[in-house]
Amino acid sequence: MKFLLVFDFDHTIIDENSDTWIVKCAPERKLPNGLRNSYQPGHWTEYMGRVFVYLGDNGVKEDEMKRTMTTIPFTAGMVDLLGFIGENKQLFDCIIVSDSNTVFIDWILKAADFHKVFDEVFTNPAAFSSTGYLTVQHFHAHHCAKCPKNLCKRKVLKEFLDKQLERGVSYTQVVYIGDGGNDLCPVMFLKKNDVAMPRQGYTLEKKISQLAQSLSPVQCSVLVWSSAINIMSYLKLLIKE
């Protein structure tokens, strides 16, 4: 009997967007208008690539970026929740599916000593070039019209579950914890016995309730959370059952 916990990262594990937080490293802590206005919908990764070039051009080094990123606060109750999952790893497999990048997530989880809680992290690959610039790539290619072109979280979740089945691992329940519009696609993939946990007041919750109003509700149960303590209470009930 094992449960799979799927976490988004920005505004779910951490209480900010890691990609916009890095702007604190920029001169005067802001980006020039031309760069800010260069974002095109669905092409966030390319936009962040330009932001990283700008930071590199302005002499922002890896250690400064790391210092800045590790000051991001965790969401209310999240430290307790991750501690609880870490103590019960025999019952929970735990993955992150995020549109952030490997460098940011790695820094933040390791600084707080939570990297061992997660079995796998699926996010855009990032690395520092020989000249010290941070570069980021698309996570994968996909054919989903609903998702940004670099990442379809449904595809990631489906492939992970298929791979686990091949290894002989199936889950009693999948619990999906997220906040954003790009979390709707994987939530619509969840089955009747699974649970979606959208963060209260964020896009995912609004989109799920819009679907219910248009009479095409999601198949899974929906439990809204405002603090990660709500999530922990639910998981404690799950293990008791």
Automatic annotation (TrEMBL):
UniProtKB keywords: Hydrolase, Magnesium, Metal-binding
Keyword Metal-binding tagged: yes
GO molecular function, one term: phosphatase activity
Record: residues binding substrate: D19, D99
Record carries keyword Magnesium: yes
Cofactor(s), names only, from the UniProt record: Mg(2+)
Gene3D superfamilies listed in its UniProt record: HAD superfamily/HAD-like
Pfam families: Put_Phosphatase
Catalytic site positions: D8, D10
Residues noted as binding Mg(2+) in the record, renumbered to the chain: D8, D10, D179
Recorded family membership: Belongs to the HAD-like hydrolase superfamily. PHOSPHO family.
Listed name of the protein: PHOP2 phosphatase
This protein's encoding gene: Phospho2
